[in-house]
Amino acid sequence: MICLFFHVQKLAAECGGLMKQAPCSDVTHCSNVIHQVMPNGREAMSWDGRKMSKRILGSSARHKQDKLLWVRLGHALVAIFTCFAMMVGCQRQESSMQPASSSEQTMAGPGERQQLQSKASDFSGGNNGEAGEPSSSSKDDQQVTASVKSKPSVDQLREAALQALGAGQDDLAFGYARQAMRIAPDNPQVVFLLAMVLGDRHRYAEAIQLLQQLAAREPTTRLPALGQTAEWMVESGRYDEAELQFRSVLQEVPDALMVHHRLGQLLLQTGRRTEAALHFDILSQFGELDHEELRALLIRAQAFPGDDGVSRFDPLNNLAMCRQELADGKSEQVMEVIVAAGDSSSAAEKALLARLLAEQEKFDDVRKWLDPLEMKTAGADGWYAKGCLALNDAELKLAVACFCQTLLLDQTDVAAYRMLSRTLELAGQPEIADAVAQRAVLVDETRKLGAKLVGDEARNLDLILQLAQSLMKLNRPMEAFGWQTIRLVHAVEAAAITEAQAQTTFEAIGRQREQLVKSGMHRINPEFVLCGLGAEVLDPIASNSAD
Fold first, then answer.
1. Residues 6+ apart with CB under 8 A from 114
2. Of 119-128, 154-163, 281-290, the least confident
3. I need a labelling partner for 390 at 20 to 30 A (CA). Which of 254, 274, 458, 521 fits?
4. Which of 14-23, 421-430, 457-466 comes out lowest in average pLDDT?
5. What is the four-CA torsion angle of 265, 267, 268, 272, rounded to 10 degrees?
């Protein structure tokens, strides 16, 4: 389970511990478990190098499915669903996040039904009245069914299903869940359980429908149902619907950290990287970013070269693929793809094309693609293209405003810093132009370091230290603290420091982070990003918008 927070580290790292021993059949017990583990959003747990190592190293595992933890929602049912999702996520080998084919979402076939009938017969001690020898059960099957009496209750069936899921026995869990549904079809816990079992079997359409119907009947289940169905929508390729549902949850629970994780990851994988960064920035205030999420903040609009197949954030749509191809030096192919798609391309794809054309100084084509776009949807790429166009037209003030707007959207855009420096030089402001050029060098250094932090080099203590120091110079302390924490893990692994030393440093980092957040000093300072330029430099954009 690759996106568990430090707050739930003990549950994630000890899959055979609390959650395995107590599958949360009791509402009060489940609620207490959650509140003990997550007392509040900002409270850090004590250091445990082994457990944190599992979390950080787990971020590099590919094709794993995150289980959504609906904590902090306050209802007893939510607590039950949360514990259930956590247990399943810890216990199971998870599959790749790919849209499911129609065949994967069909009902059980004859062979499967026969197997389930055999499993179900364990409850009554027979084989459902059919002739023949009783089916043999594995040791795990016997352990699961041993606690179930001849006439099991709903609670016993639910417990047995949870145990079967924890042991990776999908068919057995499915049989138990269906029996529980026959007895108590309106029980919210049972409905949610069956939906989770169906989801684990990639029968997403049925699982989503079950939870949507449940949410309509039981208002207290609406938020967890929204979140879990959003997960399944992502896995079945319904990305726009998933985004809407994640945002619906955040509207009601703004500090639902796992939702920020999942929405940020979805936006990243669909090419909307600067929007993803907004959610990762929120998570950085809690110390909640793993290696790959922190690395994504080093290059916010584009991608790192060679990341496709290395990062778990594989591209999910055309825009994300274009950004990866562009990072890999295939700009001509990217332009051909977007041009061929024509009006069917998204606004972000058209803005990206305009940027690439501007870099090639094909300004007539830039106008053709940029003019129809609304700049509020054009993003950093669109503003960069507009700045290049203004510079070519000798509209220096407008060019400065456009490049500044680009940087306010993406402070990691090295090219925008360089173009801003060039424009300021032409405008007769050599001192500020020089400061902007120096900023471009420092930002470029962090991006180069980030590009190196993959594979075995991801544990390079010197590189991580250098990166954290550079981020501090760039007034990005939340990111720096994240990298410092990751460095602690690798330092303990390399026996460079003791766990006691790591504990002391970890607590000190937490105190510094908390102090900055309380003071508001963690927020991006626009004047710093623009190297001392004030808000008035954006006036040409504001006046154009007013016109």
1. none
2. 119-128
3. 274
4. 14-23
5. -170
pTM of the model: 0.76
Contact by Cβ (8 Å): 407, 420: yes
Taking a C-beta distance cutoff of 8 angstroms, is the pair 423, 396 a contact?
yes
**Residue 307 CB partners (closer than 8 Å, separation 6+):** 313, 324, 327, 454
Write the secondary structure of 123-143 as one string of H (helix), E (strand) and C (coil): HHCCCCCCCCCCCCCCHHHHH
Nearest CA-CA partner of 162 in 114, 105, 91, 67: 91
Return the CA Rg of the chain: 26
Written as six digits, the tokens of 480 are 């720096």
Produce one character per residue of 498-514: b if its CB has 16 or more CB atoms within 10 Å, e if not: eeeebbebbeebbeebb
> Which residues, 6+ apart, have CB-to-CB distance to 1 below 8 Å?
12, 58, 64, 66, 67, 86, 89, 90, 94
Range in 13-22, 287-296, 404-413, 416-425 with the lowest mean pLDDT: 13-22
**Nearest CA-CA partner of 520 in 479, 478, 481, 483:** 478
Tell whether the torsion through CA atoms of 310, 313, 314 and 318 is positive or negative: negative
| Residue where the block lists tokens 């049989």 | 175
Q: pLDDT band at 104, cuts 50/70/90? A: very low
Burial string for 18-46 (b: 16+ CB within 10 Å, else e) reads bbbeebbbeeeebbebbeebbeeeeebbe
Pick the closest to residue 268 from 310, 308, 300 (CA basis): 300
* Count of Cβ atoms closer than 10 Å to residue 443 Cβ: 23
